[in-house]
Amino acid sequence: MEEYSLPTRIYSGEDSLTKLEDIKNSRIMLVCDAFLPNSDTLKKIKGHIDSSNKCETFADVVPDPPLDKIMVGVQKFMEFMPTIMIGIGGGSALDTGKGIRFFGEKMAKYKIEKYIAIPTTSGTGSEVTQHAVISDPKNHKKIPLMEDYLRPDCALLDPRLVMTAPKSVTAYSGMDVLTHALESLVAKDANVFTDALAEKVVDVITNNLVECYRHGDNLDARKIVHEASNIAGVAFSNAGLGICHSIAHQVGANFHVPHGLANTMLLPYVIEYNSSNCADALHKYAIAAKKAGIATPSISDRLAVKRLIAKIREMNRQMNCPMSLQAFGVDPKEAVTLTDTIVENAKKDGTFPGNPVTPSDEDLAKVYQAIIR
């Protein structure tokens, strides 16, 4: 039996923040990126919150949210006992909010009424997923939390909030969206619903992301990429992911490579591996490439996939993405030394089982080592 669900209510557009005006007489805990307090963005968002509500803000958010930071937020949660939580920011802020909710509700034995997500980057899709990735810096690991109730109840997609994102954030987060689409497309739990979403995301990202990178003030391009990020989140939260993410999580934990950048370094090699070892994956990648206009309908599946891989590399060059760990600044010798650790932890990652092919340790090592130099 296949299952497909979309429990998050989604509002998209320049007026989406007005939905906050419906909240009255509540205790609201805002969890936001560290740079947002006193910013125009947060002032704009709080301007839609009625004065009958009591608000507390937790902004001690850092990339790859570590467990100790989460627990500081949990302490504030237990002191304030919010009825509503609002996560505002990139994936780290939204995941921090989910982590605080996860541990806070367990420790306080108390349930919040609603979690609202307001993404300010077009990347993780965290505003519609049941996932949150927490870091364990002491052991150089990333720990995915996966609970259905962690899906936000409501997502507000205001494209104006992403227009001031730095170019590197636009590039890395956007390529994370493409990775979500291409991994969910071939994942073991994929179905016709998730395929439709994933194929559309491939089309949108390959045809609009570079424009967002070059012209961040293009509202139409920003809106469609922001929506694509959202529906990619819906796709992978239902279909699953694969070894691109399972390896990328280890690369991020060990070398502090931004998550989206780690994914886009690995993506061409993962596509090549999956398409060479799974006929169904080869065909599905080819269909997506053809529908996006990357390849003509008449060419073979194998050639279409080659065109898809070439397109990903071209986009990386156009957006100045480092295409190897060495180019990012990682010592190649150190990266090689950690191969066994990366492989072992990648196999334990929650995204690993979704891959259409179960790779051997040697296969995983080859994919990882392909991005070292």
Write the layout of secondary structure elements.
Blueprint: E1 9-12, E2 27-32, H1 40-46, E3 54-58, H2 67-80, E4 84-89, H3 91-108, E5 114-119, E6 131-136, E7 141-146, E8 154-157, H4 167-186, H5 192-214, H6 219-239, H7 243-255, H8 259-277, H9 279-291, H10 301-318, H11 325-328, H12 332-337, H13 339-348, H14 361-369
Parallel strand pairs: 1-8, 2-3, 2-4, 4-5, 5-8
Antiparallel strand pairs: 6-7
Helix pairs in contact: 2-3, 4-5, 4-6, 4-8, 5-6, 5-9, 7-8, 7-13, 8-9, 8-10, 9-10, 13-14
Key terms for this structure?
373 residues; alpha/beta; Rossmann fold; Dehydroquinate synthase-like, alpha domain; two-stranded antiparallel ribbon; 14 helices; globular
- Rough outline: globular
| End-to-end Cα distance | 44 Å
List the total number of helices: 14
Output mean pLDDT. 95
Residue windows where pLDDT falls under 50 for at least 5 positions: none
List SSEs in N-to-C order. Answer: EEHEHEHEEEEHHHHHHHHHHH
- Number of structural domains: 2
- Biggest β-sheet: strands ordered side by side in the sheet: 1-8-5-4-2-3
Helix content: 40-55%
- The portion of residues forming beta strands comes to 5-15%
Q: Rg to the nearest angstrom? A: 20 Å
Report the CATH architecture of the largest domain.
Up-down Bundle
What's the CATH class of the largest domain, please? Mainly Alpha
Going by helix content, strand content and strand pairing, the class is alpha/beta
Q: Could you say what the CATH topology of the largest domain is called?
A: Dehydroquinate synthase-like, alpha domain
Biggest pleated sheet: 6 strands, parallel
Number of strands: 8
